[in-house]
Amino acid sequence: MYEGAIQDLIDELGRLPGVGPKSAQRIAFHVLSADPADVNRLATALRKVKDLVRFCTTCFNVAESEQCRVCRDPRRTNEVLCVVEEPKDVVAIERTGEFRGRYHVLGGAINPLEGIGPDNLKIRELLFRVGTGEVKELILATDPNTEGEATATYLALLIKPMGLTVTRLASGLPVGGDLEYADEITLGRAFEGRRAV
Amino acid sequence: MPAGYRRQLYRDDAVVLRVQKLGESDRIVTLLTRRHGRLRAVARGVRRTSSRFGARLEPFGHIDLQLAGSPEGLGSSLHSVSQVEAVTLYGKSFLTDYPRYTAASAICETAERLTPVEREPALRLFQLTLGALKALSAGEHAGSLVLDAYLLRAMAFAGWAPAITECAVCGTAGQHAAFSVPAGGSVCPDCRPPGSAHPSPDTLGLMSALTSGDWAVADASAPSVRRECSGLVAAHLQWHMERALRSLPLVDRRELNL
Ligand SMILES: [Zn+2]
Ligand SMILES: [Zn+2]
After folding, report:
1. Cβ contacts of B105 on chain A, cutoff 8 Å
2. What are the pLDDT digits (tens) for B4-27?
């Protein structure tokens, strides 16, 4: 245990996700010995993120105004809507440069063990957007794990009867991996998703 | 870490009850093992797409694994997963069936809550949990019946199954019309506390069939009877739990395949 301010900083850092007590201590002492200008920039960035950043009122991505950058872009199509769990998934898909539609950020996946049900996610808002009739295809891009798949299944069950095309991202073999090392589920999925060559 | 302590490798098979993210690419998995009871272990690097272990350490799977740590729990309280092979990944069959996914979640949360002490062998509960996930994935019976059968039998292991064929208070044999969760199940007219429920005789019949594994009776039960039975089982379970189960209110009782 240290005294006063340095221990306060260690405690606060230790509450961050993925930061253990040892890392918290290392970061705290790094801050202590860093250039004051660098520390000020960090402090400003921390304050600004809480003051300026909010959630887009349309898609629930992070935004610095009423709507996020994607929702404001007039060149993108409203006909394709891509459903993701978190804002960081929007960033990952944007990096591919493959997608020109809009997003809907659920804010997580359905996980009964953690007490997260459909009502805890932005699903009602999704139904409202889909209900306007402008969306022709819904792409379910939730994580390829049990919670993400179950969430996609739940949404498909709910939205397919509304008459639009619902698709799921193909989940193939990781590039650079050997077939024999692929796990059973990924390999099975790769077979299901095979296409003509 | 005590002086002279060495991490041992040991093998066991287990059901994956819960998976939580840790840091950038690791996971903490809660396992119900056959020989070492419930334990938590860290799996390093499994969230990287290059990891073969990731899919095997998803919830609801039956896996064969090698753990590093002390089976007696010396040293670090977290064991680590060093090898894992799939026996049967039941989670796979719940991916396309949302109601069964919610039922499987309730089964796993119950198993976790009924094993409050880590590394205390719970062989019967392990077998019951494995059997329930297998039945749920086989799809021969309605998912909510499989769940209720599991809950009734798990409560029996814990020593607080509801009384069905005798009065919970005085033990008088026979099917009684009243049911009281605080009193412990069926109650005779003499012992019946105020506010007791009066379930239909078929509902108590279903509870009894689920407890004894009489699937012919259970499968033939009417939807209204199943609903009433689920309600009583859930109320009984929640009454005995210190904290309410999070997953139980989220169980989707619709049937997709049946
Ligand atoms: Zn937006
Ligand atoms: Zn009595």
Report:
1. 111-113
2. 456 688 899 999 999 988 877 788
